[in-house]
Amino acid sequence: MEYTLLSFATLSDFLREVFGLDIPLPIQTYGFFVALAFIVGAFIMTKEYKRKESEGLMCALYHVETVGEKAKPKDLILSFLITFLISYKVVAIIFNYSEFSENAQEFLLSARGSFWGGLICGLAAAAYTWYDKDKNKLAKPKTVIVKQMPHQLAGNLLVITGIFGILGAKLFHNLENFDKFLADPIGELFSFSGLTFFGGLIVGGTAGALYLRKMKISSFHTLDSAAPSIALGYAFGRMGCEISGDGCWGVVNNDPCPSWLPEWAWSYKFPHNVINQGVPIEDCGGQHCHILTEGVYPTSLYETLMMLAIFGILMLIRKKINFPGMLFGIYLTCQGIERLLIEQIRVNNKFNFLGMEVTQAQIIATCLIIAGATVIFLTWKYKDKIKEICKPVEQIPDIKAEIVEKK
Known about the structure:
- This protein has two domains: 11-68 and 138-395, no CATH class; 69-137, no CATH class.
- Helix content is 58%, strand content 7%.
- It contains 16 helices and seven strands.
- A three-stranded mixed sheet has the order 1-2-7, with no helix packed on it.
- Strand 5 (350-353) and strand 6 (356-359) form a beta hairpin.
- The longest helix has 26 residues, at 29-54.
- The protein is globular.
């Protein structure tokens, strides 16, 4: 048999091929693995936050709130608008599921929706907001100091970095493939495919840093807590690339396969790839029936294995490093080296940079190595100055008010 490992563009393809179940699910395999990456990343980061809190390295957070107020018009309007926009699409999807499952992207990006479904759900949400505020209102609203632990905000941080990360990944992908963007700007801008990890890391990381500054959460310890999560998330993302066949593969590889490797791990043709690249597969029914004409290096598989190894190393050494920020510096260095290595056999657009033919990823990876090495050196050199010990009293606002713990 020419190939022993199949690609699955959607979860429906996987269920059909493996279990013989024909269940229409509008979930692409790559998107499924990205979602898993966020879930697992949130779990690991929350655990790391809690560990650092128990060791006295991260302080509780305090902010002033007014409680017992009745619902304000802006609260009701915001609740209505958010619920209306979501329900406008969701209700339409429920009543047109077969059409949605055939082409989820086109359905979501169209103007189609259920006005009455959105209106009813929006009004219900506004009514509940009013009821909830009315139930907890006080005769005289009071000011309290709310206490929160950093791990309680890990979810918010991941959502913010995730949203801006996806936007950054899309932006950098379009910059890297500017000719395709110019040919079809609307299609490329709103397409669910085509994401550049480094773009997500830069833009998402910047948004996360601004959130940390606003909430006064330790940046050094957050970066260290996030390092293993990012490495594992990248591994999950590349696993999704490998299984879906989204074009993140290597150059043509017609060299003989080493005896200790399976053929698909050396040179793979990505049958049923999600971008329908290659030639049609005979006697194949469905939307994804193409296979590459020549085998290529399955670079997404290699990256998955390398990032899993980096994740394991970071988890093993995280408790042994007492210099805040150094673990993240090690991650940056490893990430840069990993990508420089894989770029040698990976398909990517090349640019002329200072007289050299390089890819966007090679430039950014080199910057990551330099940045990582710099962070490692500086955190070691100034370890006594940046060592953060929690001083809870200094975090409490200087006002007379009751302290309430956020559940």
